[in-house]
């Protein structure tokens, strides 16, 4: 496995996650005694750290603000061996995600304040050729500002780089429908897939959903699509006729928020470094399980040889 200077380049936002956990059974609309934690967050930031935690030295192209917390985000990524040379500090460069969890570790409600990511376009205009030439692949939040997404798609085409899509806000992402064919693989959850395709899939079995995914990739002209289904696992299909179901692993659930990001990191890493779609989804499933069993937003450090990646 020959990793280039920038490895997988992850493009997107940094958030401060404020999480509230109840001490006992969560009561909606009630006063719940508990505790509050502050974590570094953001889908793309989490994905970058997840990729680093399996030893693949990614790069992160994103923004922080000028606060001590913003500098702390950069220092943590550096400690985890994420290349941060393309990050910049700007006013209001980070978003905030406020969430309350129930006693099962699931999100009971949340509110997010998105940052302005347009300075990323300036970075791409100035250093995009350098970044993409030295990248193994690109992973981006599809709900990023459209001008940025357009520039990324152009650079991927120019340098023949694989492009993977992940979701932060599916309502916004659904407006980027015309970019779906630019992605080598798009990854989302069951609810997000329903928003994307204008259907309610909540009652579908994994086998039924697998057939739906196979049909939808041809309609939307997406080379490959992976849909996670929580405790039911994940389903996948690509335009070459490969499809299947990957069952979820049984773990002691502590915090589910980082599971989707870890899953995306595993799928993108597998596909970038020579694994089949099936094997890549299995890697994602293992990383998601390890994240769920932790109170961290990311998976623990794992030897890449466990996945056949070195």
UniProtKB/TrEMBL annotation:
Keywords: Kinase, Transferase
GO molecular function: kinase activity
Database matches in InterPro entries: Carboh/pur_kinase_PfkB_CS (IPR002173), PfkB_dom (IPR011611), Ribokinase-like (IPR029056)
PROSITE patterns: PFKB_KINASES_2
Domain Carbohydrate kinase PfkB, residue spans: 7-294
Entry keyword annotation includes S-adenosyl-L-methionine: no
Stored Pfam families: PfkB (PF00294)
Protein name, per record: Carbohydrate kinase family protein
């Amino acid at each position: 496995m020959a990793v280039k200077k920038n490895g997988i380049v992850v493009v997107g936002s940094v958030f401060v996650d404020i999480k509230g956990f109840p001490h006992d059974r969560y009561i909606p609309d009630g006063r719940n005694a508990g505790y509050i934690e502050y974590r570094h967050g953001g889908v793309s930031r989490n994905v970058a750290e997840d990729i680093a935690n399996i030893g693949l030295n990614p790069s992160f192209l994103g923004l922080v603000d000028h606060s001590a917390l913003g500098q702390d985000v950069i220092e943590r990524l550096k400690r985890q061996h994420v290349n941060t040379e393309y990050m910049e500090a700007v006013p209001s460069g980070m978003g905030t995600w406020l969430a309350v969890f129930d006693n099962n570790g699931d999100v009971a409600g949340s509110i997010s304040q998105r940052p302005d990511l347009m300075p990323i376009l300036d970075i791409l205009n100035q250093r995009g050729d350098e970044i993409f030439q030295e990248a193994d692949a690109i992973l981006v939040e599809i709900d990023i500002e459209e001008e940025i997404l357009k520039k990324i798609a152009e650079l991927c085409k120019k340098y023949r780089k694989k492009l993977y899509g992940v979701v932060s806000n599916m309502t916004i992402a659904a407006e980027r429908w015309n970019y779906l064919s630019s992605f080598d693989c798009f990854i989302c959850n069951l609810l997000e897939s329903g928003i994307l395709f204008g259907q309610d899939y909540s009652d579908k079995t994994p086998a039924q959903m697998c057939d739906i995914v196979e049909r939808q990739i041809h309609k939307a002209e997406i080379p490959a699509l992976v849909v996670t289904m929580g405790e039911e696992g994940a389903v996948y299909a690509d335009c070459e006729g490969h499809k299947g179901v990957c069952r979820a692993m049984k773990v002691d659930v502590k915090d589910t928020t980082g599971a989707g990001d870890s899953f995306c990191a595993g799928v993108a890493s597998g596909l970038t470094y020579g694994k089949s779609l099936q094997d890549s989804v299995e890697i994602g499933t293992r990383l998601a399980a390890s994240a769920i069993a932790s109170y961290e937003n990311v998976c623990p450090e794992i030897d890449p040889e466990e996945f056949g990646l070195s």
